[in-house]
Structures are given as C-alpha cells and as structure tokens.
Amino acid sequence: MNGLDDLMLTRAPTARRPLLGLTVLVVEDSRYACEALRMLCLRSGARIRRADSLENAHRHLTVYRPTVLLVDVGLPDGSGLELIRSLAESSGRIDVIIGISGDTAVEPDVMKAGADGFIAKPIENLAEFQNAILRHLPAERQPPVPREIPDEIVTPDPVAYHDDLNHIAQVLADADGSTNLDYVTQFLSGVARSASDDELDLAIRDLDSLRQGGANLDASVAALSEMVQSRIAASGPL
C-alpha cells in the first residue's frame, strides 16, 4: 500500500464521515452507476476503487484487500454471483460483501451466494448507502453517535450516461444471440433506472417479456437500438 492508503485505513470514522477508514471496491460496468457510487463514497469518507469486469476485479483483489465489496450481478464476462460466492467462502473474508442490481428479483440469489446484503439500483440516497454498509460493520468500526443522517440524493454527470449508451449501442450492433441480449437487458435496465429514463426502462421490460414468451425479437431489438441511438444523438458530441 502507498502512504495515502495507509492514512485512509488508519483514520477513525466520524459523525460526518461515517465510512472513513474503509476502502470500497465497486465491481460495476456502468459508468453512470459508478459515478453515483464515487460521489456517495466521497461524501461518506470512504476510498473507492473500481473494476468493470470479473477479470479486472480479480486483478484488483490480488493486490488490494478492500473492506467493502459492491458487486453488480450482471457483468460483461459473467455473473457477479460467481465472485460473491468465491469470496464469501474464502479464508480472510472481506468484511462486507453486498450485491447490487437494477433487478430486485435477484436478491434471493445474491443472499444465497453468501452476500451480507443487497442494494437495488438506482443507488443515490446518501443515508441509505451509508446504512447499508454500516449495519454489517462491527462496533469498533461504527461512527460516534449521535450523528446527523444526511437526506441527500446524488446526481451523476450526464456524460457518464452518454458513455453507457455508447457502450451498449456497440453491444446491440453486435448482438447475435441470447447471451448478448441477457447482458443488454441487465445493463440497460440498471442504467435506465439510475438515470430515471422511464421510456427506455419500459422498452427493456417489453423486450424481456417477449424473450420470455419466445417471440421473434428482431423488430424489438431494432427499436431498442434506435431508441439508444436517438438518446446519443440528442446529447450531442462530448
């Protein structure tokens, strides 16, 4: 570890910065969701590191041992449940392991895999974020009480949403089977809900319903791709 890491890990939590001394590894491929988590960690006093895939998460974990692990269930190279399961069963277990997803139906799977908790996207409320982590920490890691509970909602930079749309537009252009569409619906669902894009979220849910019914998806995928492209065009060059 470097000097800054050492300093962060030895600082005690305070009432205003209840997560001081914690390092959070976020395994999440959405730039928009990560930006929200970065802001929440910054306001809480935690140090944050990010991995956008299972492969990169394993690379981080060979070098750093975070205090808290936040794992998205839908990742480009596999399920976050695999990572949760392997780390929950490992020796020297990470203190707090939490699964995150825009699909609340996966919460039982997250808990069965060995996670300590689950947070549904969008993750934007500062008090809820802090409490979701603090409830799993031992007494010696708790901030002093009483403490002010911040009623604050973070709003990530729209540039991050634009980046996510560009990413999924490329995936849609290459989509040739159910595996890609599994990823598309998981990724876009979380992004749309985080950005409060209700129209896009509805289109994704309609596509998912058609998939479940075994319908031909060509027209629906084309319409979803067009919707994504229209949002990219509307946001203009960055």
Structure description:
The structure is a single chain. The chain has 238 residues and is α/β, with parallel strands linked by helices. It folds into two domains: 3-141, Response regulator (Rossmann fold, 3-Layer(aba) Sandwich); 158-235. It has helices at 3-10, 31-44, 54-63, 80-88, 107-112, 126-134, 158-174, 178-194, 198-212, 218-235, and strands at 23-27, 47-51, 68-72, 74-75, 78-79, 96-101, 117-120. A five-stranded parallel beta sheet has the order 2-1-3-6-7, sandwiched between helices. A two-stranded antiparallel sheet has the order 4-5. Helix 7 (158-174) runs antiparallel to helix 10 (218-235), helix 8 runs antiparallel to helix 9 and helix 9 packs antiparallel against helix 10 (218-235). Residues 23-136 form the Response regulatory domain.
